[in-house]
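Bumping my old thread because nobody answered last time. Still need a sequence for this structure:
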């Protein structure tokens, strides 16, 4: 198994562990992540921004699980793409989404320098708006603006 593929699989495992340090560990210090398609209007995030935004979202999801449907590797381009699905439980109800995650690597394949995460935009928009409403109802905290909805809610869920 190539180093790229191994690191990409570790990235998915980190999401299954639901630990922000594990999620950040496979990234190069220059890594950026963008949730796509662009119609979702989610800005690219550097590591610090992603850690803060995703970290604020993690407590809202329970039993987050990612399942891999397929893996594609581009050796010449130093990239790995994965077709994955995720499930979780939230205060807004069950979460289910489908993604294509595209990882670009350092020259030696040991770290990720760019993540492009294509989500099911219809599900994503609807769900994150519902989640934002639930967080606002309960006075919760999360960085809604990072996920393309509402504004930063105050308080704690």
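Sorry it took so long. Here it is:
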């Amino acid at each position: 198994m190539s180093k790229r593929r191994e690191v990409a699989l570790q990235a998915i495992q980190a999401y299954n562990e639901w630990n922000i340090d594990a999620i950040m560990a496979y990234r190069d210090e220059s890594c950026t992540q963008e949730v796509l398609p662009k119609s979702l209007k989610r800005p690219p995030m550097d590591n610090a921004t992603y850690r803060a935004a995703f970290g604020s979202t993690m407590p809202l999801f329970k039993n987050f699980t990612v399942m891999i449907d397929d893996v594609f590797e581009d050796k010449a381009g130093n990239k790995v793409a994965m077709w994955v699905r995720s499930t979780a439980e939230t205060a807004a109800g069950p979460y289910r989404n489908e993604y294509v995650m595209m990882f670009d690597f350092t020259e030696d394949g040991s770290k990720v320098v760019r993540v492009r995460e294509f989500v099911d935009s219809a599900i994503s928009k609807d769900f994150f708006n519902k989640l934002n409403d639930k967080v606002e109802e309960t006075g919760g905290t999360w960085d809604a603006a990072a996920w393309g909805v509402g504004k930063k809610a105050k308080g704690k869920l």
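The longest strand covers residues 62-74. Let me know if any region looks off to you.
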